[in-house]
Design goal:
By secondary structure, the protein is α+β, with helices and mostly antiparallel strands. The protein has 18 helices and 17 strands. Helix 7 packs antiparallel against helix 9.
Length: 564
């Protein structure tokens, strides 16, 4: 469905752009990872970009939440508030070379767009200036810029935007087309890309972000990007088998025997100290990118002596969120002189659950849980932390929400980079997760267990009964705020006024296709009488169908229904 276009670049446009960019990177993440060939073989540029934008989205959403006045009343934040939040979120969440440079691009835009904190919005001329400053500041942040990388794509986007006339939509489209053309030219600028037959991965990610900007202002997404190289076109199937040349996307090329570690940390330091730090880290290694300002910086470098890189940060200020990755060996988390970690278990299940009651149920069944409160979906970092807590060699991940598919995929990719074997089962509801967990057998071979759990989840239809928060169009017609909605497999199928009657109608429709077991999960606000009535309905009308009832707690929906 076409996005409602934004006329000016205001706070709402920032929010829309960030959300669309996250969706675009979620769709393209695996493709971008697959073509990641420069300069280190880690194949995670798409994931790093996704995680960086995810952090920016979280920060922008927090600003909008802070302006909520009441349940249905809100005051829109200023453009300055929104772009500063976007830049700050990207800075603190930046991952890898590509994410760090994207964070600086967003910061560069914010510096222009927030220059006058009172301006409610900007037009095409303001967007042109923001894109120009973004490209220039990103190039300055890289110790040794190399052409044929995301920096070239950003510069081309800014150049094209500078020559564009018109509103924000026209400027955004010109920037996108300039970036797309520059992306196609990257193999001719960088030999490693030409040998692999791919375009620059970081540049490909930036094109996706700029496509989201076009959609923000025009309401329509540009035509899908065809991976282009060979000076004209290169198809994805020319990527070397099994990611043989996967790597990051900018700065200086690394030969065999190059730096062994990637070191990333946030740093609180003064400008003068950071200048000294740049010189010190440049002597220690390469792929150096330092972005930020106003006392907070994100530092990224490839070195052989990871300890020296961290010590340099200590000399400059206060480093924290230190992340050290040994290329090819997964993550090495700095732990000081702590005792050896406990022994890993062979297999674990990690599940996202929507309420405290279900969290208890899943935990009793042996799963490590991540609680998703209403309106607060977990970030991929929380899922990665849960995988680490599970401390297993093999993990089955149950997102239990269709909207979490990209988040869960990014978390799975990150966990795999840390040496964990992860299988993501695309469960779209907690009741599908319950069905999968019921057939989980850790003693089986991993692949067999995953197949069995996937089959059980896929054989479970799911529904929920909830109250509409606002008027909207649905598959079943127009609903009003306060109407009771019955959703089957994610689509509104019933609009009613009574919770029990609506739930009964939904259940009847689901059981028309047959079933052996009905699972009911009641939210805190659902009366027990609903479950009693549905249990009675099953006993009276559907022979040989069993019913189980759980209390889900504060799960958002009044009722979840599963039919196996």
């Amino acid at each position: 469905m076409a996005q409602v276009p934004q006329t000016f670049f205001d706070a709402l446009a920032v929010r829309t752009w960030c959300g669309l960019a996250l969706e675009a990177l979620g769709r393209a993440r695996e493709e971008i990872d697959a073509i990641n060939v420069y300069p280190v073989a880690d194949g995670d540029t798409g994931t790093n970009l996704y995680l960086t934008v995810e952090s920016a989205v979280g920060a922008v959403e927090a600003v909008f939440a802070a302006h909520e006045v009441g349940a249905h009343v809100s005051v829109k934040p200023s453009l300055a508030d929104a772009v500063r939040a976007m830049a700050h979120g990207a800075l603190i969440g930046a991952q890898g070379n590509s994410g760090t440079i994207l964070a600086q691009l967003l910061r560069g835009m914010a510096q222009v767009l927030a220059a006058d904190g009172e301006t409610p919005h900007t037009d095409g001329s303001g967007l042109r200036l923001a894109l120009r400053h973004a490209a220039d500041s990103a190039r300055r942040a890289v110790a040794h810029p190399v052409e044929g990388t995301v920096l070239s794509v950003a510069t081309a986007a800014a150049d094209a935007a500078t020559g564009a006339e018109g509103d924000c939509g026209a400027v955004a489209r010109a920037a996108y087309e300039g970036a797309r053309a520059a992306l196609a030219a990257t193999p001719g600028q960088l030999a490693v890309l030409e040998r692999a037959g791919v375009v620059d991965a970081g540049g490909r990610g930036l094109v996706a972000v700029l496509a989201a900007l076009v959609e923000t202002f025009t309401g329509e997404a540009p035509a899908a990007v065809v991976l282009s190289a060979g000076h004209a076109r290169v198809q994805i199937d020319t990527v070397p088998a099994q990611g043989a040349l996967a790597a990051e996307d900018c700065v200086s090329p690394l030969e065999e025997g190059g730096p062994a570690f990637e070191v990333i940390y946030l740093l609180e330091a003064e400008d003068a100290a950071v200048e000294r730090l740049r010189a010190r880290l440049d002597d220690l290694g390469d792929s150096l990118v330092v972005v930020g300002g106003d006392g907070l910086w994100n530092v990224h470098v490839h070195v052989d002596d990871a300890g020296a890189a961290v010590e340099a940060g200590v000399e400059a200020g206060r480093p924290y969120r230190i992340r050290i990755t040994h290329f090819g060996l997964g993550d090495v988390h700095t732990t000081g002189g702590r005792r050896p970690p406990r022994e890993q278990v062979q297999r674990a299940v990690v599940a996202v659950v929507p309420g405290e009651g279900l969290a208890g149920l899943y935990t009793e069944a042996g799963a490590t849980t991540v609680l998703a409160r209403p309106g607060e979906p977990p970030a991929s970092g929380e899922l990665v932390d849960a995988v680490r807590r599970a401390h297993a060699r093999e993990v089955v991940l149950l997102p239990n929400d269709a909207d979490l598919r990209h988040t869960a995929a990014a978390a799975a990719e990150q966990a795999r980079a840390e040496g964990v074997r992860v299988a993501l089962i695309p469960t779209r509801s907690a009741v599908q997760g319950i069905a999968a967990l019921a057939v989980h057998e850790p003693e089986r071979r991993f692949d067999e267990d995953v197949v069995s759990m996937t089959s059980a989840a896929g054989a479970t239809r799911y529904a929920e009964v909830a109250v509409a928060e606002r008027q909207s169009w649905t598959m079943a017609g127009i609903c009003q705020a306060g109407d009771v909605l019955g959703l089957i497999d994610g689509d509104v199928a019933v609009i009613g006024s009574d919770v029990t009657v609506t739930a009964e109608t939904v259940l009847d429709r689901m059981l028309q296709a047959g079933g052996e077991l009905v699972t009911l999960v009641l939210g805190d606000e659902a009366p027990q009488s609903v479950a009693d009535r549905l249990e009675a309905r099953v006993r009276e009308s559907y022979l040989a169908v069993d019913t189980v009832v759980y209390r889900g707690g504060r799960q958002g929906a009044l009722l979840l229904i599963g039919v196996e």
